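Request: Mind sharing a record?
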Amino acid sequence: MIAGPPWASGTDLSERQRAHRGNVLAGFFAAMIQFDLNGRKLALEETIVRKLHAEALARAGSSTTLNDLAVILSRALSERKTITLRRAESRALEQLLNADGH
């Protein structure tokens, strides 16, 4: 029987290698923030969410919806769990995404 590479099977990996692989995967998933937009799931990179937060905050004076969205995005960045948006915030988020070309 031919043995595959160590990463192909958990049994061939040392404890340290498994821990490293787990940390790499955890780091990948930690960088994504999940949203629920009226039943549609959306995952965005943390850097994108930070930019959207800054944009919503900058425009918050002209719109209560954007102000609410800025607060929600701030919470999303700190809590790291799926954030459910109401219809108005979903539309505002989609408009910011389309305006920035994401």
Summary: The first strand starts at residue 32 and ends at 37. The helical segments are 15-30, 46-59, 64-79, 87-100.
